[in-house]
Records
---
Amino acid sequence: DAGVIQSPRHEVTEMGQEVTLRCKPISGHNSLFWYRQTMMRGLELLIYFNNNVPIDDSGMPEDRFSAKMPNASFSTLKIQPSEPRDSAVYFCASSSPAGQNTEAFFGQGTRLTVV
Amino acid sequence: GQQLNQSPQSMFIQEGEDVSMNCTSSSIFNTWLWYKQDPGEGPVLLIALYKAGELTSNGRLTAQFGITRKDSFLNISASIPSDVGIYFCAGRNNDMRFGAGTRLTVKP
C-alpha cells in the first residue's frame, strides 16, 4: 500500500491567490482528517469526513477555507483567497471509522508558504 | 473542544536512559494513539491502545491506556540517538485530537 498521498509537497503562493491541497487516502479507509500544523498551535484538526461526508468542520478557521471529498479516494482542501498567516504544514490522515481498528495514518504533508 | 495536556514539553537525556511522557484529558477517549514526527515528515504511528487499562509494547516502547480513559503514558527504554524527534499523543472518539508534543533530544 502506498500510504496516504498528499500533493504538492511544497507550495509557495502570493497573498490573494487560491491554493488547493490534495489528498488520496489509503484504499479501504473511510475516515479522512485534515490538520494544520504550526509552531504556535501544534496539530489542529480542521475537518474530518466519514464515508465522504463532512462530519465536523468546526476547526476550519474561516470561510476562506473549504474542503471536499467527492469520492472515497480523493479529498481537497482549498484556501481562497490565501493570506500569509495561512502559512503552515497541512496534513491529511485516513483511517477506518471509530469503533473498528482506528489507527490513523498520515501523509507527508504540504508545506504552504504564502508571501 | 477536547483538550489534551501532554508533558513534558521537552526532554534532554543521555543515550541509554529511559524516557517517560504522558497525556491527560478532561474528556474520555475510546482510543489512545502515540505518534513520532521527524523533521519534514508526517507523524508516524507508534502504538495504538483500545481498552482501558491496556498495556502494549512495541520493541523498546511501552504505552498504557489509563483506567479512567482520560490519560495515557508512553515509555521508551534504553534510548538511542534515533529516538530523537517529537512525540505526540492523540485521543480518538469520532474525531482525533492531538497533544502539543514532547520534543526529545538524546545525547550520545
Note: Chain A has no helices and eleven strands.
---
Amino acid sequence: NAGVTQTPKFRVLKTGQSMTLLCAQDMNHEYMYWYRQDPGMGLRLIHYSVGEGTTAKGEVPDGYNVSRLKKQNFLLGLESAAPSQTSVYFCASSWAANQPQHFGDGTRLSIL
Amino acid sequence: ILNVEQSPQSLHVQEGDSTNFTCSFPSSNFYALHWYRWETAKSPEALFVMTLNGDEKKKGRISATLNTKEGYSYLYIKGSQPEDSATYLCALRSNSGYALNFGKGTSLLVTP
C-alpha cells in the first residue's frame, strides 16, 4: 500500500538553486496539501489543492509555487532557494476537507 | 491564521498510567478538529476528526472529547504503554476555509 509518496527524501541545495518536490497519492483523493515543519513550530500549510487543476495559498506561501496537473500528483517548486526554506516538507492528501489527512514520510531539505 | 494551543508541551508517564492532554482553540471559528499521532521518524497518523459539540471518539485505549462552545478538546490515553510514546497533534479547521491550523503538539514519553 503506497498511500502518499514523496520524492526525494533528502536534498541539499545551494542558495539560488531551484528544485521541485513531488507528491504522489494512489487513493484517488481530491484534496492535497504541502506543509513545512520547523523546530518549535507546528506544521504550517504552504499551499493546498481541492482538486485537479486548482491550487490555493496557505499560511506561508511566499517563495513557493505549486501545480496540480494530475489528480494524483501535487508538485511543490522552489524557484530560487533561500536558507530560510531549510525545513522538513510534508505532503498530505484527503478524500474530502473534513476527512483525515494521510501524510507522506517527508522530504528533508537543506539550503546552504 | 488561528491560534491552536496544546498543553502540556511534554509529558513523561510510567507504563500503566492514564494520561490526558488539552487542545484549545477559538470557539467562534470552529468547523472541525483533527487529532494526529506522530511517532519519531514516521509521518503523522490520523486518530480522530470531530465536528459536533459533545462528540466523543474512541480508538482502543485512546479517546477524545470535544467542547466547541468553550473551545477545547481533550485526548485521553488509558493505561499508557511504551508504544504510545509519540507527539500528539491537534489541528483546527475553521469555518472560513479548507486549511488545517496545527498546534505545536504534546510530546508523550511512556517508560516501562
Note: The two ends of chain B are 39 Å apart (CA to CA).
